[in-house]
Amino acid sequence: MPIQVRIPVQLRALTGGQEVVTATGSSVLQLIENIDKQFPGVKDRICEADGKVRRFVNIFVNEEDIRFLENLQTPISEKDEVSIIPAIAGGRPALPFKKSGARQCSNCSGFHFKDDS
Predict the structure, then answer these.
(1) What is the number of other CB atoms lying within 10 angstroms of the CB of residue 46?
(2) What's this model's pTM, rounded to 2 decimal places?
(3) Domains of the chain, residue spans
(4) 111 and 105 Cβ atoms separated by less than 8 Å
(5) DSSP readout, 66-116?
(6) What percent of the chain has pLDDT over 70?
């Protein structure tokens, strides 16, 4: 049963630039292993050496994080939508815009803060 898996930009160098790949398996783990057979190195980027999903990688089945399902043993079928999404972190703390001290730059049209150069 072929299943389409959405691949994040960070892994597309391993998939030949493909945004969506097709793989087979009856669980998320089997799906990842099948993708890794087609595109070596993908599993190493998704899973730790002990086999667990890296903490900065999220895998969703039908928009549900597998960490809240059965993790890598989450069953899948050909009707399921599977996405691999990198975690996003960083940036500045959210502040009310006027109180943040941000000003629009006349050179780049971006916004800068008082401590930015």
Answers:
(1) 20
(2) 0.74
(3) 2-86
(4) yes
(5) GGGTTGGG-B--TT--EEEEE----SPPP--TGGGT-EE-TTTS-EE-TT-
(6) 74
